[in-house]
Amino acid sequence: MAIMDGNNRLKRLRNQYRLVIMNEDTYEEVVKFKLTRLSVYIFMSTIFVVLIVLTTSLIVFTPLKYYLPGSGYGNAKQMREYRNLKIRTDSMEQSLKYQEQYVESINKVLKGKIVKTDTVNLKLPRLENIDD
Questions:
Q1: DSSP per residue over 24-85, as a string?
Q2: Are 98 and 105 in contact (CB under 8 A)?
Q3: Is 124 part of any domain?
């Protein structure tokens, strides 16, 4: 296996290629480009960096940042409202659960499924007849 020389790689990057765009009907050359691998690599890298910069600036300098969850850009008032709504929702869920248990217990008692008997015998003093 031949060892690649650094000079050989540089030569391959600088080899010239021609890109021709032709009209399919007339076979007329519309556009012709002379390209190298290095120029294509630089062009693609530049486009990649520009797209990243544009996307980042779009998010940072516009109100879009407020719509990103977990980004921490929400203002304090919105965060406070969010927490209050979450607390209210949790308490409403808890009260709904208690109400469902209450209605379920009432239905059981009305249907006679649960009859609790008092197991403690109370010794109450007898009331005397107060007709005298």
A1: TTT--EEEEEEEEHHHHHHHHHHHHHHHHHHHHHHHHHSGGGGGSTTSS-S-HHHHHHHHHH
A2: no
A3: no
Q: Which residue has the tokens 């003093």?
A: 125
Nearest to 20 by CA among 31, 12, 9, 10: 31
Cα–Cα distances in Å, from 42 out to 6, 17, 50? 19, 15, 12
Looking at the structure, do residues 13 and 55 belong to the same domain, yes or no? yes
Do the beta carbons of residue 29 and residue 22 sit within 8 Å?
Answer: yes
Q: What is the dihedral of CA 38, 42, 43, 47, to 10 degrees?
A: 160
Amino acid at 105: S
Q: Which residues constitute the domain of residue 85?
A: 75-113
Per-block mean pLDDT, blocks of 10 residues, the chain (132 long): 68 90 92 93 97 94 79 72 92 95 88 71 72 55
For residue 34, list its beta bridge partners.
Answer: 18
Q: Is the pTM of this model over 0.85?
A: no
- Residues 31, 64 within the same domain: yes
**Does 80 lie in the same domain as 36?**
no
